[in-house]
Amino acid sequence: MSISRSYYGRLLDGLIQGAAALAALCILGICILMVSMSLSREFGINLRGADDLIAWLCAASAFLILGQTFQHGGIVRVEIFLGTLKPQWRRRLEIIGLTVMSGFCLFSLAAFSLFVYQSWDFNDVSQGQIIVPLWVPQIFVPIGCLIFFLAVVDELARVLRGDKPRYQQMAEDRLSAGDFGETL
């Protein structure tokens, strides 16, 4: 029994959206902690370990949002250069670029996964005011890298099938709607 491409596409989109929602919650957590720290200083209360939590939430949010940022065209690309090329050359360069990017994502995923595994294996704990096994906050980095890798491979598959990459389609849709904010 084979599962259709649309099932995998919906599953990947759900995974990317879930990671983006988790990244948004991390940013909300950062906001709440920073406001709490500011208010607590007014009352002479020290929120111990809040700086550590904020740092971990910043890292988690930065990596968890990579897949959605890429999918929506938020990753820096050389669109001005690509726009001057004939369609067949643009497609070739998209394939080369996405292949290289896939390799980089896979390397990053392997390196960060090894790093988290070593933190777990050595029972490494944080050195701040909150003592936690370091693999706990670190795990979001390889998870974000995995989602980013899957998003890049998905776009590579789209281009190999002869379709436009999603980020290109979204950019064209924004321009046709009169939104030139991201192109300036």
The helix fraction, in percent, is: over 70%
Extended strand count: 0
Shape field: globular
Number of domains: 1
Question: How do the helices and strands follow one another from N- to C-terminus?
Answer: HHHHHHHH
Q: Which regions are unreliable across 5 or more consecutive residues at pLDDT < 50?
A: none
Describe the structure.
By secondary structure, the protein is mostly helical. It has one domain (5-176). It has 8 helices and no strands. The protein is globular and about 65 Å long.
Please outline what is shown here.
By secondary structure, the chain is mainly α. 73% of the residues lie in helices and 0% in strands.
Could you give the topology of this structure?
Blueprint: H1 5-42, H2 50-64, H3 66-71, H4 79-83, H5 87-121, H6 135-138, H7 140-160, H8 166-176
Helix pairs in contact: 1-2, 1-7, 2-7, 5-7
List keywords for this structure.
single chain, 184 residues, 0% strand
